[in-house]
Amino acid sequence: MMRKYSLLFCIFLAFGSLHAEIYKWTDRNGNVHFSDKPHPGAEEIILPKTQTYSSPAAPHTDTPVAKEESEDEKSAYETFTIAQPEDQVTIRSPQGYVSILIDLKPELRPGDKLQILVDGTPIDKPRATTVFALQDVHRGSHTLAAQLSDAKGNIVGTTDPITIFMMPPREGMAKNSP
Questions:
Q1: Burial group, residue 22, by CB count within 10 angstroms (0-12, 13-18, 19+)
Q2: Which of 32, 141, 144, 145 could form a disulfide with 161 if both were Cys (CB 3.0 to 4.6 A apart)?
């Protein structure tokens, strides 16, 4: 019950500048009442003036406004390389499995996508990820690179290519040891 009266009192305080006079009284049952109209036995509550603040005007400076980034600046990444596998590494996998990790800083922006090139040929569609898994990479020497495309599908960058050597497991290496 007291909360209701406290809330009502706060509302009157908030609108104090609109209503110059507020009256408070207690009825026979002990209930406290507030009103903007006088009531027998009511006391007038004097509200403090409303506090206001006006921020000072900003000083006028001749500092040039920052220019908008060009499309080339927006698409530029500080780092764009193949972090894994390392260049000139030999990978031994009977399934021809190669895990590729792209080091990209800052993180891939919304709309930008990456695509892996094996021996200069795009593999799969561009995707919004920096981790790729290739399968069935044939035995031999292969070059790997990654292409970066923007939201419109334009190629905006390519990593330096790396070379990997895909080899079958060595003789005597058991696929499933008992």
A1: buried
A2: 145
Q: Is residue 68 part of a domain?
A: no
Domain that holds residue 25: 2-45
Beta-ladder partners of 79? 105
- Predicted TM-score (pTM) of the model is 0.55
Residue-wise pLDDT for 104-120, tens only, equals: 999 999 999 999 999 99
What is the sign, positive or negative, of the torsion defined by CA atoms of 112, 115, 121, 123? negative
pLDDT tens-digit readout, 133-176: 998 899 999 999 999 999 999 999 999 999 999 987 766 655 55
DSSP assignment string, 77-116: -SEEEEEESPTTEEEE-TT--EEEEEEEESPPPTT-EEEE
Q: Is residue 93 located within the same domain as residue 147?
A: yes
